[in-house]
Amino acid sequence: MKGLSLSARLQWFSEIRGSGTTALTQFTRAEVTAGYQLKKVDAKLMYRHQTAFRANESAEVPTLSVQMPWLSANLGYQLSNDLRFDAGLIQVRNNGTGFNAVRNAQNEIIDFTEVNYDYTETLPVVSVSYKVFGKSTLQAGMLLSNVQQTGTTRSIRSGFLAYFIQF
Amino acid sequence: MRYLLLSLTLLVFGGCQRDTDPAGPLLTDLYGSFRVLEPLAVSASQVDFANGEQAHFSARMSILVDWQLQITGRTSGAVKRITGRSRSIDLTNSRWLGETTDFPTFGIETCDVMLTFTGQSDTLRSTIEVTGKRVLEAIVLDNFENGVASTWIPFVQTGAEMKFRIDSTPPLAEGRNYYKMGGTVAWDWLKGMLTLNATAYNSTNGFGLPNNASAVYFNGIFRQRADLNNGIILLQFREDDNGDGNFNQASEDMWSVEIRPGATWKLESLRYSDLVTLVNGAPASPVGNGVHEPHKLLRVDVLFLGNPTSGYTECDMDLLAFSLNQPVQP
């Protein structure tokens, strides 16, 4: 179908130095993106499943296991050859058990605290991009982070200005 | 070309030296269950500190834990505490040279050793017998074990209930005796004093102190009667700046410090270079050359003061001594 694009990506990463154990945390990421373009309008939908896992050696130490399913939707409009408007929504779910590292002034880890993640972060974003010259782009936008956790809601609004050079 | 780059990348990545020690404390130490793997043991059943011997303790636990070793003299009641956070207790973290944490000092006696762990109910016990007392590395002016040394020049004001004498009533500090100072002098702050001239201490070498003031400490153990708080011990150190064998208060330095003792025996260790000039208890500019020169120390005075309107006042002191490089460790 003309204007439709589909892509899939699988990634795997590993710690190179264990945190609090010799076992290394493994990270995986599976991602599917579908895009559709109709004249000056394009739409993208992405689903990503990201995990972090480490089976701890001792039965007394909780296993590190965090799941982060992402859902991202974006609608873009090409205002002119050089100017573009985007509006998107990203939703990330965090679920599982992990460890927060407590560091001292020398940035050394001095303690770990067990954390049970169970929250959803929603990030609406709008931006305007301007192609300055060649393959460089200037982008300005606004991002809102809204975290919903049992009993609490945190909200952070951020403006951003970015300059990209594509090689 | 693509395969060459890939190979180079793999080669660089594979050739990297990486730190295989885990970052941060071990999670098994933080979340594991506590067990004593090796019980408390003492390096020797008897220790003769007077002969330079030392003792240490050993034990092994399953996780990193905060621990405390407490050694208590059965006769003296002296207490030494050694604390640490580790998975094992050994020579490196539990060496005992016979010193005391809570006075009095240890005597020749059997001591109970108790090992406890923060957050755990386990208590491990053992004993050790002290067969020789620790020898102090210090220039001892007096520990009052054999009365007040004849080298001191005592002065006692005229007043009521004047007590300037040796006492051995517990609680003790160092040894069996200490010096008690007390009395009511309604017309003067000074109740009494002890003076020690360098020449009286040693006619040839004086106090034998080096010229590096930051390496010299004056130490003393003091306390005040529990129901009183009006006693002040003023220590004065007079220097012979010009080397004429005399002290001139108009042109030579006198360094001082005021101590207001609490109700329990406490070791005060004062670095000589931190001493100041005091005028009526307030810091003032030095009168002499302004340089701390312990090798020129001519005289030490211990003055016992109290507000004349505050009534009876009483303080005790023990083990007056200079030490070099570090505070004395009785």
Structure description:
The complex is a heterodimer of chains A (167) and B (330). Chain A has no helices and 8 strands. Chain A has strands spanning 4-14, 26-38, 41-54, 64-78, 83-103, 109-133, 136-149, 152-165. In chain A, strands 1-2-3-4-5-6-7-8 form an 8-stranded antiparallel β-sheet, with no helix packed on it. In chain A, strand 5 (83-103) and strand 6 (109-133) form a beta hairpin. The two termini of chain A are 29 Å apart. With 330 residues, chain B is mainly beta. In chain B, the strands form 4 sheets. In chain B, strands 1, 2, 3, 4, 5 and 6 form a 6-stranded mixed β-sheet that branches. In chain B, strands 7, 9, 10, 12, 15 and 19 form a 6-stranded antiparallel β-sheet that branches. Chain B is extended, with a radius of gyration of 27 Å. The chains are: A mainly beta (167), B mainly beta (330).
Q: Topology of this protein?
A:
The complex is a heterodimer of chains A (167) and B (330).
Chain A (H helix, E strand, L loop, with lengths): L3 E11 L11 E13 L2 E14 L9 E15 L4 E21 L5 E25 L2 E14 L2 E14 L2
Chain B lengths: L1 H14 L11 H5 L4 E7 L3 E3 L8 E17 L5 E11 L1 H4 L14 E9 L5 E10 L6 E4 L9 E5 L3 E8 L10 E7 L5 E8 H4 L14 E9 L6 E9 L14 E6 L6 E6 L5 E3 L2 E3 L12 E10 L6 E12 L6
Parallel strand pairs in B: 2-6
Antiparallel strand pairs in B: 1-3, 3-4, 3-5, 5-6, 7-19, 8-11, 9-10, 10-19, 11-18, 12-15, 12-19, 13-14, 13-18, 16-17
